[in-house]
Amino acid sequence: MRVEDVLARRTDLSTFLVHLTRNKGGVSGKERLKDILEQEKLVAGSPMGQAVKRLTKSGIDTSSQKCVSFTETPLEHVSLLVGDIKGRQCSFESYGVAITKKQGRMAGVNPVWYVDITPGHNWLTKYIDQLIDDAIKIHAFNDSTIAKLSPFFEQMGTQGGNYKKEFWWEREWRVNGDFFFPFTYIVLCPEGEISEFKAITDNSSRSQHVSFVDPKWSLEQIIARLAFFRKEEVDPF
Asked: Which of 53, 65, 120, 170 is the most exposed place for a label (fewest CB within 10 A)?
């Protein structure tokens, strides 16, 4: 079964939002997570959404579209998102952070609106593009209403064998700008490296409110460890 099939069939009652790190610019996902924990925030690095290409083509700064992205994948299925997935440009590693949806919503994190571009009907994207183009023409994009909405629009569609962009199953959420950690959050990392990351969070005022989860753990293991059972009280060996 494909990873997208597994995630698409899961319950809609996922409680958490997950942000995974990856190797970028020669910096590993592990090192990126260390930087994140030291800063206690996720920095909006990449411009996202439907306006980016049109702004770039027009020579307009895209920094207003920079976002931090999350997926609402349940913790016990996060491992399915790690590594190479056919057709996806980014390969994520087993490092990241997780927050609850309620925490995310309080901080302005919002579900992405996936707009279909599959041929055969009148695309909604045409109307969104028109609003973007209208704002660009009058040189007022950054002050426009659409500039606040466009980071949350993402296209989905298949056009024969020439184009396929079908990652709506990731159920992405985004926040426009940097995301500062809430008081309580979860660190995702391999079990053997928990002590290494805990040494970083121990320097934070939140040290007693940070939990650690290995993305490869089963649901039962995750529940047990979040309930503060010791490893020897849970694992059979």
From this structure: 120
Tens digit of pLDDT at every position of the chain (237 positions): 565 565 555 544 578 999 999 888 889 999 999 999 999 999 998 999 999 999 999 999 999 999 999 999 888 888 887 766 665 556 788 999 999 999 999 999 999 998 887 777 677 888 999 999 999 999 999 999 999 999 999 888 777 667 666 666 678 999 999 999 999 999 999 999 999 999 999 987 776 789 999 999 988 899 888 887 877 777 766
Q: What residue segments make up the domains of the chain, in order of their start?
A: 3-234
The single residue listed with the structure tokens 């009280």 is 233
What is the C-alpha separation between 133 and 81, in angstroms, rounded? 35
Place of tokens 């040189």: 139
